[in-house]
TrEMBL record:
GO molecular function, one term: ATP-dependent peptidase activity
Any single Gene Ontology cellular-component annotation: chloroplast thylakoid membrane
PANTHER family: ATP-DEPENDENT ZINC METALLOPROTEASE FTSH 7, CHLOROPLASTIC, METALLOPROTEASE M41 FTSH
InterPro entries cross-referenced by the UniProt entry: AAA_lid_3, P-loop_NTPase, Peptidase_M41-like
Name the UniProt record assigns to this protein: ATP-dependent zinc metalloprotease FTSH, chloroplastic
Family recorded in the similarity comment: In the N-terminal section; belongs to the AAA ATPase family.
Taxonomy of the source species: Eukaryota, Viridiplantae, Chlorophyta, core chlorophytes, Chlorophyceae
Domain of life: Eukaryota
GO biological process: proteolysis
Amino acid sequence: VGREQILRVHLARRGLPLCDDVSVPSLAAMTTGFTGADLANLVNEAALLGGRAGKEAVGRAEFDSAVMRSLAGIEKKRSILQGEEKAVVSRHEVGHALVGAAVSRLLGGFSGEPSRLSIIPRTGGALGFTY
């Protein structure tokens, strides 16, 4: 509830037009652990992504990308993995996803299932991630 209220303050302060697919409660749910400053940066990053794409309103895709940038860093699209390194990182991330799904089922909904997996290197030093 607190994150939702903080997000509403930052959205109102920026006067950011939102698409119909954006739900502030769902944004709050996917930003567990974010501080007030993190949420302000999230709103700013989503606005920048929407502006760069020439959009009139910011949608869920921009917020999803902004969350991923906050959690894992910016994609290094020029550093695409190849060969054996790609295979190793792929297996590693699939392992995280399998364990995450099993834990989620064992805990009966107290832990979210993995929803995104990537083997694109990020600026934070990660070669991949599971969210």
